[in-house]
Amino acid sequence: MSAILIDGSIVHYEALGRGRPIVFLNGWVGSWRYWVSAMQVASTSFRAYAIDLFGYGDTAHETIRYSLDKQASLINRFMEEMGIGKIAIVGHGLGALVGFSFIQQWPKSVDRMMAINAPLDFVSVSARLKTAPMTELIEWLSSKSPEAISALADASKADLAAVAASMGSLQADNLFTHIRTAGIPCLLVHGQNDPAIVTPTQESIDGMPSHLHQITLDSIGHFPMIDNPSQFNRLMTDFLALETGLSPKELQLKEEWKRRVR
To answer: Which among 35, 41, 81, 117 counts the fewest CB atoms within 10 Å?
Structure first.
């Protein structure tokens, strides 16, 4: 286990590979652990970091650090301490919102972002996700496969106060409005069968600017990186392979990818 002290608080992370840095951020249910497969794939070309956010896994549980802007500050301080330059972000649920907040505060530090099952506003989040105990959330959102059980082994460590604080932050500030104008390439990925987050409407997708693109994965729930890791990792690899500054809409032009996601 790797850990550093950030402003006096323990922050747990794991790292693999060499190359340009990519940072994986966990969602409301789980920890760094469910990124293992994606990290292994990314590490062939990148230096992959997976960080447990405050209140999750083996990172400190400190209520004053649970808001989205404080979680984003964790990423900034982590980069400073580790000597990391411009990053790609892969965030899931909560991690995607933290990524949005990070872009809002430090836009020049992000090359691109992949946001998985990210709510685009507060009303897109199921009331059950906002209020249920963690044991219920694990039971509700997990496929219960052996792979899912292993990947979510640390989920019960989460502090529900961290969930509540993130919801309060989202309600107070619709972060996606900043992403629409930031100009940073962002690929939005939603599982069609995710019961916790509402998939964006076709109207909202059609109205997205050129630096944003949304893909819905058929027959996938809240954890596409667990439910179908080969499909998820191919999509991630294709997105990361785009030249800096190119729109993620370029993925639509790849017939090979179109065949993969049908």
So the answer is: 81
pTM higher than 0.85 = yes
Q: Given the DSSP bridges, would you call strands 87-92 and 186-191 parallel, antiparallel or unpaired?
A: unpaired
How far apart are the C-alpha atoms of 138 and 166, rounded to whole Å? 18
Compute the distance between CA of residue 33 and CA of residue 112 in angstroms, rounded to an integer: 22
What backbone torsions phi and psi does residue 16 show, to the nearest 5 degrees?
Answer: -145, 150
pLDDT number for residue 259? 46
| Separation between Cα atoms, residue 160 and residue 56, nearest integer Å | 9
Ranges under pLDDT 70 in the chain: 252-262
For the chain, the maximum distance between any two Cα atoms, rounded to a whole number of angstroms, is 50
Is residue 31 within 8 A of residue 51, CB to CB? The reply is: no
Domains of the chain (ranges, CATH numbers): 2-261 (3.40.50.1820)
Q: Residue 189: which of 256, 130, 259, 261 has the closest Cα? A: 261
The contacts found for 215-219 with CB under 8 angstroms, 24 or more apart, are 215/187, 215/188, 215/189, 215/190, 215/251, 215/261, 216/189, 216/190, 216/191, 216/192, 217/189, 217/190, 217/191, 217/192, 217/261, 218/192, 218/261, 218/262, 219/192, 219/193
Distances (CA, A) of 235 to 23, 43, 117, 191, 261: 16, 15, 14, 13, 9
